[in-house]
Design brief:
It is a single chain. By secondary structure, the protein is mainly α. It folds into two domains: about 70 residues; about 70 residues, Winged helix-like DNA-binding domain superfamily/Winged helix DNA-binding domain (Arc Repressor Mutant, subunit A).
Length: about 190
């Protein structure tokens, strides 16, 4: 038995550092051809080797580490591409906040009002039935079409449309009611 190895450890299982040294370049080439942004390659490489390290202690024997890495890479790339489609992030660092339409906040009153408004929206969303909330989050929150939301949720497109319509109405009523009770609590005019 080789020195430093336990009885259950395979003599053919290469250490992680050796796997990285031997296969990192091939994995890098694979990722460069498949991801949209070259800056994602390093992050994905790290994620793939992290997954490889987590799986190396399992009972299964990895006879072909490169094929095993590519299998992990295939799934990691698919997940990353799907995430990019669901949540696109676009930066234009050449614009100042004023040019992009986002002005910097000037007073703490504005910030406080915004926090109150956010709290009102959170509370109103918490009051919605679950199906309405799911439909609203997919269509309004994620920017999905009714067909895409239908595929993601399992509801039909017409059901999604109905839930979104009812959800918007219920949300508006909840926000209006919350603002009315807020005005009454502040001693403002009563309706």
């Amino acid at each position: 038995m080789a020195r430093g190895r336990s009885k259950g450890e395979s003599a053919s299982a290469p250490p992680v550092q050796a796997v990285y040294t031997r296969y990192a370049a091939a994995l890098n080439r694979y990722l460069v051809r498949r991801v949209r942004r070259p800056e994602d390659v390093d992050d994905l490489t790290q994620e793939i080797f992290e997954l490889f390290v987590r799986r190396k202690d399992r009972a299964e024997v990895v006879r072909n580490p490169l094929a095993y890495l590519f299998r992990i890479a295939f799934h990691a790339v698919g997940t990353a591409l799907a995430e990019d489609e669901r949540n696109p992030v676009i930066f234009d660092s050449r614009q100042t906040p004023q040019e992009s339409g986002h002005e910097t906040r000037g007073s703490s009153n504005e910030e406080a009002e915004e926090l109150v408004a956010q709290d009102d929206v959170r509370h109103a969303l918490a009051q919605l039935p679950e199906n309405y909330l799911i439909a609203l989050m997919l269509v309004e929150g994620q920017g999905m079409s009714y067909k895409e939301a239908s595929r993601a949720s399992g509801f039909s497109p017409s059901t999604i449309a109905t839930y979104v319509m009812h959800g918007r109405a219920a949300l508006k009523l909840a926000l209006d009611g919350r603002r009315d009770t807020g005005a009454k609590a502040d001693g403002g005019p009563r309706k």
